């Protein structure tokens, strides 16, 4: 899982406001296309998810997986697969927020996914890129509205 796909977008909002949207996993189906359901199964002392189950549909891949989250305040969140699905065998991702106090924040999303079915690397990265771009655009629309 060394290869990761990443992309960035600038959102007109403070880091704390953007991270509040990212941390509200239950609301993802409202703005993140392909996410059908999120269930937080464990929270940390800060009230943010430590573990969750996500159900998604992404083109040829639909699955339900368990994820573990690590939060770095309003600067970053990372997640990794802890319960594989029927198709997804590996998943690592992160949102990193970089804001200079100008009212704009650069949000970078990294993602690496492994699946049980054989898939050419280029096709896999293209799928990851589509997921990332859709999520970043949905996040921007949701935060800036």
Descriptive terms for the model:
145 residues, alpha+beta, seven-stranded antiparallel beta sheet, 7 strands, 26% helix, globular, START-like_dom_sf, SRPBCC family protein
Beta-strand fraction estimate: over 45%
Helix content: 25-40%
Total strands: the figure is: 7
| Individual helix count | 3
The arrangement of helices and strands along the chain is EHHEEEEEEH
The biggest sheet amounts to: 7 strands, antiparallel
Helix vs. strand class? alpha+beta
* Spatial shape: globular
The average pLDDT is 89
Taking Cα atoms only, what radius of gyration do you get, to the nearest Å? 15 Å
Measured between the Cα atoms of the first and last residue, the distance is: 36 Å
Stretches where pLDDT is under 50 for at least 5 consecutive residues are: none
Strand order of the largest sheet: 1-7-6-5-4-3-2
Pfam families: Polyketide_cyc2
Protein name: SRPBCC family protein
InterPro entries: Polyketide_cyclase/dehydratase, START-like_dom_sf
């Amino acid at each position: 899982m060394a290869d990761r796909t990443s992309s960035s977008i600038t959102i007109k909002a403070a880091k704390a406001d953007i991270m509040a949207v990212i941390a509200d996993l239950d609301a993802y189906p409202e703005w993140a296309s392909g996410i059908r359901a999120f269930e937080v199964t464990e929270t940390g002392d800060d009230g943010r998810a430590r573990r969750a189950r996500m159900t998604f549909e992404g083109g040829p891949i639909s699955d339900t997986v368990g994820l573990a989250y690590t939060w770095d305040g309003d600067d970053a969140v990372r997640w990794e697969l802890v319960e594989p699905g029927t198709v997804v065998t590996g998943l690592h991702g992160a949102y990193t927020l970089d804001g200079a106090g100008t009212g704009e924040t650069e949000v970078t999303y990294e993602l690496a996914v492994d699946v049980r079915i054989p898939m050419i690397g280029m096709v896999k990265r293209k799928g990851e890129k589509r997921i990332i771009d859709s999520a970043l655009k949905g996040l921007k629309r949701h935060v800036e509205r």
